[in-house]
């Protein structure tokens, strides 16, 4: 397949999921209904595997005499987002480590505050509901990308695989991963279909959601500047506009704390500096080679990082479209090159769904349905168990 930004569709145009927007209201509703019917098996499969994870968590929570809702809605980073929604951001840099909430990007807490202002639920409940809703928007976008490139079966398998990742329980927590993945998936789909203004808008919103929003912006900008887009004014506008959300927040933090490098100073207080991967290599050796009894979760994180690099090499060999390769490549560079906290890195890679395309394509082309059922079934059970283990046994954040 050509690595160009746009690819030849493999399914009839009338059956392809639409990017957001376009057309009159009635026509748009009809296209959305058709697209939703086409994506329904993928979304139902995603719902099934995530409900399995929720049931395992509920049983484990019951045995430990905890509650499902507080475990999913208010633990770890969820508290930071809720704090921002309640009280806003810090107005100074300070010197205390792991304490400055300017490290957390604003779109999710702003949305929590806005929705909670017009609904009866608490902000914690709103945060959790938004995460679940965005997980399905993300699943639809993931299906749309897979369907566009390789057909409906591959898109369906790709969506289910995203739902059975080892840390997939985070998709239904008060975290930003689901929202960010939704924005990234639809931005990439907009690139594949040549909708540059939509791609740039979604990339800009992704840049207001997570630090790794720069990966979405890079994907859109690089794809829009390819020779195949030369002379396309919308592509040029998209290339320039895609990083505006990320740049705007970084600039605002600098203004907020009174120094141009304010955002990076905040990240330094979280011990999160880019070191080219030295810390990652050190931890990999420590947990997989030198330690005799490393913690299970750290071993899983280490193995997933190695697998992610291997999958990226397969993506390169498959010559995926440029936008997908740039997105996952920059995402890997940011996550693996960081000198910050080690154990959340598998979660940080959760939005990198294009890495799963080689596996999804192989399963979709498998001649024996039993093979697919065994792989997806085993992955579902292991993801469900690990999600509960991560939240109830592991002592750190997911």
Protein traits:
single chain, 398 residues, mainly alpha, disordered N terminus
Please explain how this structure is put together.
With 398 residues, the protein is mainly α. The protein is 66% helix and 0% strand. It is built from 18 helices and no strands. It has helices spanning 25-63, 68-73, 77-87, 107-116, 123-150, 152-163, 177-192, 196-206, 213-224, 233-241, 244-257, 262-269, 278-290, 296-317, 322-336, 345-348, 357-364, 369-392.
Q: What is the strand and helix layout of this fold?
A:
Layout: H1 25-63, H2 68-73, H3 77-87, H4 107-116, H5 123-150, H6 152-163, H7 177-192, H8 196-206, H9 213-224, H10 233-241, H11 244-257, H12 262-269, H13 278-290, H14 296-317, H15 322-336, H16 345-348, H17 357-364, H18 369-392
Quick synopsis:
This protein is an all-alpha fold and 398 residues long. It is 66% helix and 0% strand.
What does the average pLDDT come to? 93
Unreliable spans: 1-15
- First CA to last CA: what distance? 36 Å
Task: Characterize the largest beta sheet: strand count, sense, and whether it forms a barrel.
Answer: none
For this structure, the quaternary state is single chain
- Classify the beta-strand content into a percent band: under 5%
Number of helices: 18
Structural class: mainly alpha
Order of helices and strands: HHHHHHHHHHHHHHHHHH
Query: Rg to the nearest angstrom?
Result: 21 Å
Q: What coarse outline follows from CA principal-axis ratios?
A: globular
